[in-house]
Design brief:
- By secondary structure, the chain is an alpha/beta fold.
- It is 31% helix and 15% strand.
- The protein has a 6-stranded mixed sheet with strand order 3-2-4-1-5-6.
- The longest helix is centred in the middle third of the chain and has 18 residues.
Length: 229
């Protein structure tokens, strides 16, 4: 017996084309520096460091070719993600940036554009415990549970719309964290902490044919380009 693995014919046929979802967290945001909730009103784009981080990843992609042949480039509609995608585009063959609101970070409702200190004082959030998974941080905001469901919906939609293609997505830490629930079927209640650096790369892959219902985590929090920044 060799170590070649199971016969594909037993599992339903030859392996086919890979669908790759490559999730890139945006560079450092100016709202993060200012400690302001960065919803649609509060997000003002990247900080100077964030632009350098995104540029470092662009240069890595351009020189290494690890994502050569990328088919489509998406971003959330928040300025920090759009700006990150625009910086990355030349390293991905000059792809146009397609914006999708469902790729945004958790919607903060009336907490948008106020300071995090004010959020804690006005809304007593987060309070701790599993109940916070279902309790919005402020009026009009999403709960974490609803946010997680939204991420699952949009990632599965992108995978279906671009089957067999490589999709790069400039998005947010919460989106990447929830990809582990949507694609890796982890519990809604965190079992461990995920480290997700700004402009880090998390990649998921699924092949048609063999195990086509399963996603493979190819890499997580790949931020080698940040060395020295």
């Amino acid at each position: 017996m060799t170590g070649a693995g199971p016969d594909p014919s037993v599992l339903g046929g030859e392996e086919g084309a890979a669908t790759r979802l490559v999730l890139v967290r945006h560079g450092e945001a100016q709202c993060h520096v200012d400690q302001i909730v960065g919803g649609p009103k509060g997000c003002s784009g990247l900080s100077d460091l964030g632009r350098r981080q995104a540029s470092a990843l662009r240069d890595r992609l351009a020189s290494g070719g690890e994502l050569a042949g990328t088919d489509v480039l998406y971003a959330s509609t928040l300025p920090r993600a759009v700006e990150t995608a625009e910086i990355l585009s030349p390293g991905l063959g000059g792809l146009a940036v397609l914006q999708d609101e469902e790729l945004c970070e958790l919607q903060p409702g009336t907490a948008d554009a106020i300071t995090w200190e004010e959020v804690r004082a006005q809304y007593a959030w987060p309070g701790g415990g599993d109940a916070d998974l279902y309790r919005p941080m402020a009026p009009g905001a999403e709960s974490w549970a609803l946010f997680s469901a939204r991420v699952g919906r949009v990632l599965n939609r992108l995978a279906a719309d671009h089957a067999g293609q490589t999709v790069v997505v400039a998005c947010h830490g919460g989106v990447i964290e929830n990809s582990f629930r949507a694609l890796g079927h982890l519990s809604l209640i965190p079992q461990f902490l995920l480290r997700i650096e700004n402009t880090s790369v998390t990649e998921w892959e699924r092949r048609t044919g063999t195990g086509e219902h399963l996603w493979t985590l190819v890499r997580s929090n790949d931020a080698a380009h940040l060395a020295g920044l």
